Input
Amino acid sequence: QVQLVESGGGVVQAGGSLRLSCAASGSIFRIYTMRWFRQAPGKQRELVATLTDGGNTNYADSVKGRFSISRDNAKNTAYLQMNSLKPEDTAVYYCNFIYQRLGAVWGQGTQVTVSS
Output
């Protein structure tokens, strides 16, 4: 089985930082792309950051300059470093990996709450 386990969410004051982790296990297939999404209550799911196996990154305009996606291939883990957090960043954050053969696999989500 393929499983993505997220951690690192919590409550932080505006202007603070958090680092989310997404650890993958249970598959020998290659991960082509690592992505972070978020979804706030009453809003559509938003693609926040993308990292391809070639090292290309993309970010939503709302987080450019504040968030950074990275990975540790030895640990099969993706990270989302979130700096200068704003209340508008409050959401459930989901990792999503696109695997060879398997397609997309989702993490369970982790809550990020930014207080004003």
Remarks:
- The two ends are 40 Å apart (CA to CA).
- The chain has a mean pLDDT of 96.
- The longest strand covers residues 31-39.
- Residues 87 and 114 are 5 Å apart (CA to CA).
